[in-house]
Amino acid sequence: MVHAPNLQSTVDRYAKSLAVPHGLTSLHNRNKHRPTQAEMSLAPAIVLTSVSAFEGFVEEFIAVTGAKRNLSFAQIVKLAHTNAPSLGDFGRNLVKQLGSWSEPTWVDNYTLDLYQPPELTSRSNWWRTVNKPWSDVLTDAEGWLQVRHSLAHGLTRGYLSESWPSPMGQRGFHVPASHVLREQQNNRHSLTLHGAINCARILRHGAEILCEQTAKTLGEKPPRWRAVPAFPLVAE
After folding, report:
1. For residue range 189-218, what is the model confidence (pLDDT) as tens digits?
2. CB–CB of 191/181 below 8 Å?
3. Rounded to whole angstroms, how far apart are CA atoms 60 and 82?
4. Which residues contact 57 (CB under 8 A, 6 or more apart)?
5. Is the dihedral of CA 163, 149, 138, 226 positive or negative?
6. 132 Cβ neighbours under 8 A, 6+ residues apart
7. 109-166 residue pLDDT tens
8. pTM for the complete prediction?
């Protein structure tokens, strides 16, 4: 029998890994009309570190869930071996393991507040907020993986106005990076701090709800997420 750590331990480590992107958000002067290049560089850094933290959490959480189901080491390794998992991939993996959620109605009831990019003709640098359902959150999560891919492979810098490449098309990824970015002139888009916070919020809060449903399906008390940075829309 494989020893199974508790689910809380995976959440605690996720909190530590999110300390870096959370700290980066505090370095940006949100009240400044024109941020410096150093401040603009914070957005891509937040995306890269928050996606990396999410990937580490997904791998460990899947492994712990498998251990709780008394799977062998070989089975756990096969399940936990993921390549750039999206939020949707995470959910599908857990459903594959657990068979079904204890409360499937949460999918219909779940919503998350996010920044909404302004229209091209808008003069505002601040994004209004919008309440998105789970299906839209999953779609946006795919778009943020494309943003991360472009940043990690040097296809874009992540600040100022840039042309972002089309989706890679692998594993069903068809949501372009531009879907979650702010539209600019000449088919260009920009990331900005607001977008980076959206990315971190989607992955962090999406991970929490999937963790909660997993715990309920396993018949356990959901882990505490109070210590995990929440990436609020309003500066702390």
Report:
1. 999 899 999 999 999 999 999 999 999 988
2. yes
3. 11
4. 10, 13, 14, 17, 207
5. negative
6. 111, 112, 113, 114, 140
7. 999 999 998 888 766 666 789 999 999 999 999 999 999 999 999 999 998 889 998 8
8. 0.91
